[in-house]
Every structure is written in structure tokens, then in C-alpha cells.
């Protein structure tokens, strides 16, 4: 073992470090939250989770805890591809102007499309987010990126929320969103279209951050061999994101918790 005799006897005499039941529970809970997030929770987010469970821990304490347990955040670099609109399609005005904080649900929604790579080829995901709570209220994934992709995401959102007329939907100027078919769909739902400027990624920054979390914190952590596997994994993340992922903008509540707390305040 290449250990000296003196070192061995010193080790024998050293007292065993005793871990209390509370500390052991803390270790187990920290590992549970970290693994559930696919190794994506930093110390600040992990501290919030632990404090919600009744553990009185500081930022420094969680940093030491993560080091002790070997909890290291892993990141993967994602890719981004954009689409261009047809020049014959109309462009809506920018009604949002980077105001990402409406005061009630179903006032402003935002959406976009992203590319997802699998072992069988590409898949495309369209989402609709309610900017009030950051909740994903509609989404659709398919192996083709068409107007039908974004239309189905919007129809799912509309059927779930039944928003009042006048709601604003903000997107980029991609060909799917500027198409006549999609503009007619929004008009039938009584939804007003809003579009960001060309090349201004910050015009839809909240949705971009969601896609970053989806890829960096979840999808790229494990192999995605098939389209069916990707579909199931996206479904799992949508559930985790809406129900469990804490948001600073929501007062450290998940999107669904934030909406429920708002309803309680009103009632």
C-alpha cells in the first residue's frame, strides 16, 4: 500500500468522524436535488432547494457541501441555427420592446423554435411561454420544421389557457411565424402578433434562456440516440421545468407554484 508504519498507526488512533442524522439527511437531500437536475444546480439554486426543505444553510456552506460530496456542475455547449422569413410575408410591429414582465397571466406570451440533434437526425421544438410566470403553456416537437410545428404549439397553449382576446404573442421573424397560415391562426384566436428586430437576440431573451437551460442542463447531459428518446426526454424536462425549477423572477418559485400563489392572493 506504500504507507509507512508510523502513518498506519497514526491512522488507527485517529478518532472516527461522526455524522449526525440531520447532516446525513442533508447529504442525501443535496445529492437527490443535484442528480434530479442532471448535475446542473449551482450552489445558489441548491441552497434555495435545501432551505425550502428546512435546512438552514448559507452559500458558503452549500459550496463546502458540494465539494465534500463531489457535486460538480457539468455544462455542454449547444448550437443555434436560425431561419429567415420570406420577403413576401408580413412582419408585425414589436409590441413588447423587451418588456418581459407582464402583471398578470395570459397578457403576453412568447415563442420560438430550436433544433435538437438525435442519433436518427434532427428534431425541432416549438414552445409558447407565458411571460408572467415563465410557464411553458404549449409546445410541439417534430422531425420537420414547418408552420404546422408552431401552429400546433399555439393551439395546445390556447386550448389549455383559453386566454382573452388581445393577448400579445411575441416571436422572431422566422418564416413559420410570418406565414399567412400562422397569422390567420392568431387572428382567429384574437391574439396580436409582435416580432423582434432582425439579429436582436435580446428581443426574446427569456425564451432563449429557456432553450439554453433545456439543452445545457438537460438534453446534452445524456445521449439522445433516437427521436422517440428525445421526445420523451423533452417531455420530462417540461414537467421538471414547470413544476420544480425555481425562478428568481418568480420569487424563487416554480412557474406553476407562482401562478397558484398569485391566484391565492387574488382570492
TrEMBL record:
UniProt xrefs under Gene3D superfamilies: Ribonuclease H-like superfamily/Ribonuclease H
Entries under SUPFAM superfamilies matching the protein: Ribonuclease H-like
GO terms for biological process, alphabetical: DNA integration
Domain Integrase catalytic: 101-263
Superkingdom, taxonomy of origin: Bacteria
PROSITE patterns to which the protein is assigned, alphabetical: INTEGRASE (PS50994)
GO MF annotation: an example: nucleic acid binding
Protein name from the UniProt record: Transposase
Organism this protein belongs to: Alteromonas mediterranea
Amino acid at each position: 500500500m506504500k504507507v509507512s508504519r508510523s502513518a498506519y498507526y497514526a491512522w488507527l488512533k485517529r478518532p472516527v468522524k461522526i455524522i449526525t442524522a440531520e447532516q446525513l439527511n442533508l447529504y442525501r437531500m443535496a445529492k437527490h436535488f443535484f442528480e434530479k437536475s442532471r448535475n446542473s444546480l449551482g450552489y445558489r439554486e441548491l441552497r434555495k432547494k435545501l432551505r425550502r426543505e428546512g435546512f438552514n444553510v448559507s452559500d458558503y456552506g452549500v459550496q463546502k457541501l458540494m465539494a465534500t460530496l463531489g457535486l460538480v456542475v457539468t455544462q455542454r455547449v449547444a448550437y443555434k441555427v436560425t431561419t429567415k422569413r420570406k420577403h413576401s410575408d408580413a412582419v408585425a410591429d414589436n409590441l413588447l420592446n423587451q418588456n418581459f414582465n407582464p402583471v398578470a397571466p395570459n397578457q403576453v406570451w412568447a415563442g420560438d423554435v430550436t433544433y435538437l440533434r438525435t442519433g436518427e437526425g434532427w428534431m425541432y421544438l416549438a414552445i409558447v411561454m407565458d411571460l408572467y410566470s415563465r410557464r411553458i403553456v404549449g409546445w410541439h416537437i417534430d422531425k420537420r420544421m414547418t408552420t404546422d410545428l408552431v401552429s400546433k404549439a399555439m393551439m395546445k397553449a390556447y386550448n389549455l389557457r383559453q386566454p382573452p382576446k388581445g393577448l400579445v404573442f411575441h416571436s422572431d421573424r422566422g418564416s413559420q411565424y410570418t406565414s399567412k397560415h400562422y397569422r390567420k391562426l392568431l387572428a382567429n384566436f384574437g391574439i396580436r402578433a409582435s416580432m423582434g428586430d432582425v439579429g436582436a437576440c435580446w428581443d426574446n431573451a427569456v425564451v432563449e434562456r429557456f432553450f439554453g437551460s433545456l439543452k445545457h442542463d438537460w438534453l446534452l447531459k445524456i445521449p439522445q440516440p433516437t427521436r422517440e428518446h428525445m421526445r420523451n426526454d423533452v417531455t420530462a424536462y417540461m414537467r421538471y421545468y414547470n413544476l420544480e425549477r425555481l425562478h428568481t423572477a418568480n420569487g424563487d418559485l416554480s412557474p406553476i407554484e407562482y401562478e397558484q400563489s398569485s391566484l391565492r392572493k387574488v382570492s
